[in-house]
Amino acid sequence: MNVLQVAIGTKNKAKTAAIQNIVNTYFDHVHFEQYTVSSNVSEQPFSNEETRQGAINRARNTLQVARADLNFGLEGGVHEIDGLMYCCNWGAIALKDGTVLTCAGAQFLLPEEIANELRLGKELGPVMDEYTNKTDTRHHVGAIGVFTKGLVDRTEMFEHIVKLLIGQYLFYKNI
């Protein structure tokens, strides 16, 4: 029996749950390990490009540490279009042979009062904790859960990204 080794480049509960939920849906006999690795980008990425690079860096850094079959990096960031700030989310998976697959997920508008805090140099996670008067929002519902009235939470948002990554992996593997 072959066991699929999956390395997760974060200890964030919402991201980890998303990876475990989706991988367990499509594979049997999986072993998960979590690692704290750097994204090598800003604490608060401020563009799609920087957020994507953060996901790639996390996946590659996880590969370097774990050498697992599948090495995941997920990154959340923000970007502006026409003066409006949106959350953006990217994922990457690094394979043992060094191949990196990427994709993006949901993007949603942030209220101007939140966007202004980020423009002042603050990070979304702590801003959301202050806004909701709760702790560790990023590990649970996330900004998306707050600003969609709970219709979509952070785990569900990242599950979509992980599903896209697994689909690309399955396609790549069969080429």
From TrEMBL:
Protein EC: 3.6.1.73
Keywords, sorted A to Z: Hydrolase, Magnesium, Manganese, Metal-binding, Nucleotide metabolism, Nucleotide-binding
Catalytic activity: XTP + H2O = XDP + phosphate + H(+); ITP + H2O = IDP + phosphate + H(+)
GO molecular function per UniProt: ITPase activity; metal ion binding; nucleotide binding
Cofactor(s), by name: Mg(2+); Mn(2+)
InterPro entries, per database record: ITPase-like_fam (IPR029001), NTPase/PRRC1 (IPR026533), YjjX_NTPase (IPR050299)
Top-rank taxon: Bacteria
UniProt GO BP: nucleotide metabolic process
Domain Non-canonical purine NTP phosphatase/PRRC1 residue range list: 9-164
Membership in a protein family: Belongs to the YjjX NTPase family.
Name of the protein: inosine/xanthosine triphosphatase
Organism of this sequence: Lysinibacillus antri
